[in-house]
Design brief:
Elements: E1 5-6, E2 27-37, H1 51-61, H2 65-77, E3 81-87, H3 97-105, E4 116-117, E5 119-121, E6 160-164, E7 174-175, H4 201-206, E8 214-221, E9 224-231, H5 244-260, E10 283-289, H6 302-308, H7 322-327, E11 346-350, E12 355-362, E13 387-393
Length: 394
């Protein structure tokens, strides 16, 4: 892979960022943002089958208002490393990621200072990848949708993109797109009401755990390495009483808990066949839209709860915003919500080892505050909010 970009500015939880890149290389901001940049977002009705071309056109134009607002938010928060969830996979970087950087991030949006990320990583995902099985048991075999290995109307829908100001050790990246769900000890099995298996034996044998993928991306910051662990588990909804998506969401989240542990990762193998989890005493940051909250929502909460409460993770803080509190005034958890549909779904979780947390927040200005129009509705930018954590690298 090649290159891409980042930096830091004014925020909604009352925190003021500098308008320039941090001069202290030991201070870093990590962020995650579900940007809703999947082609169907921009598709006129009846345009299915031309999905990649639709997004390529919008990236090339530099004029899409929704994408410009997303870029302005990134230019305002100015992270050093950022994960973009729901950025459709486009194989050619000249048509995808580079166009986004050149035409949107490298151009001042709404008066914010342009930003650059010389390094990036992206790869294939399981969404929209057709399976030969009736995975939702409706008696029909569809090429995409609910019978894909993860829901998607075309391969690469809802993909992921990691952008970085610092070099990425691409040769050392580990991907787990093809890790089989059956190979996780204690995997949550999906059953029919009569107690029989939901998935056929053949389907279960081939079923990948990841709905998109799990990536361990080593970022080189001076002479130190930070393992950026990224994923986007399936929403724990859009199923039935069997809760097949809820169980998959739980186990996708549990994967990281096991991966960072000192004694629970021996079963894990990556797409190159290398076994085991993260080396002990490694710095890491887990980032992504986990589609789960430990205190509300439809997920099997033990999954995200066990991850957030891992002794390896610094959970002494919970990112918050004025806008989230204002949007759900009767919900005590509203201040920590990261999505328009009222839940904490997006996480930046640094390891206790190697970092000291300086600040954190959710980009969600209250009404009347500067840039509140950027998050007024889904069409303004996204139905999610950018979540950031600023740390000192120790």
């Amino acid at each position: 892979m090649k290159k891409i970009f980042f930096i830091l500015s004014v925020l909604s939880s009352g925190v003021l960022f500098s308008q320039s890149d941090s001069q202290d290389k030991n201070e870093l901001t990590f962020a995650t943002y579900n940007v809703s940049m999947e082609s169907d977002n921009y598709s006129p009705k009846g345009a299915m089958g031309k999905s990649e071309q639709i997004l390529i056109y919008q990236l090339n134009s530099g004029h899409n208002t929704q994408i410009r607002n997303i870029a302005q938010i990134i230019q305002t928060v100015r992270p050093d490393v950022i994960l973009l969830n729901e950025f459709d996979y486009i194989k050619d970087p000249e048509l995808g990621v580079k166009e986004f950087i050149k035409n949107y991030l490298n151009v001042s949006q709404g008066g914010a200072t342009a930003i650059d990320y010389p390094y990036y990583y992206y790869s294939t995902v399981n969404t929209g990848q057709p399976s030969p099985y009736d995975l939702n048991n409706d008696g029909k075999l569809d090429s995409f949708g609910n019978d894909a290995w993860a829901f998607g109307m075309y391969p690469g829908q809802y993909g992921m993109m990691l952008l970085s100001k610092y070099p990425i050790d691409v040769k050392a990246v580990r991907t787990f797109q093809h890790f089989k769900w059956k190979d996780m000890p204690g995997a949550l099995l999906t059953k029919k009401t009569d107690g029989s298996d939901w998935y056929s034996k053949k389907a279960w044998k081939e079923f990948p755990l990841s709905s998109k993928s799990h990536w361990d991306v080593p970022v080189e910051i001076g002479n130190k390495t930070v393992h950026v662990l990224v994923s986007h588990p399936t929403p724990p909804t859009f199923d039935g009483a069997e809760d097949r998506n809820g169980k998959r969401n739980h186990d996708e989240i549990r994967f990281w808990r096991d991966y960072i542990s000192d004694n629970s990762a021996s079963y894990i193998y990556d797409d190159k066949g290398v076994k085991g989890g993260l080396s002990p005493n490694s710095r890491f940051v887990i980032m992504g839209d986990q589609n789960a909250s430990p205190v509300e929502g439809d997920a099997i909460r033990e999954g995200i709860k066990s991850l957030v409460e891992s002794p390896k993770i610094n959970n002494d803080f919970t990112p918050a915003s004025k806008g989230g509190a204002e949007f759900s005034p009767e919900n005590p958890f509203g201040v920590n919500h990261t999505a328009f549909w009222r839940m904490r779904a997006d996480y930046v979780l640094p390891s206790r080892l190697g970092f000291r947390v300086l600040n954190n927040g959710v980009f969600w200005p209250a009404k009347g505050e500067s840039m509140s129009e950027l998050v007024e509705k889904r069409e303004s930018s996204s139905d999610h909010r950018l979540v950031w954590v600023k740390v000192v690298l120790e």
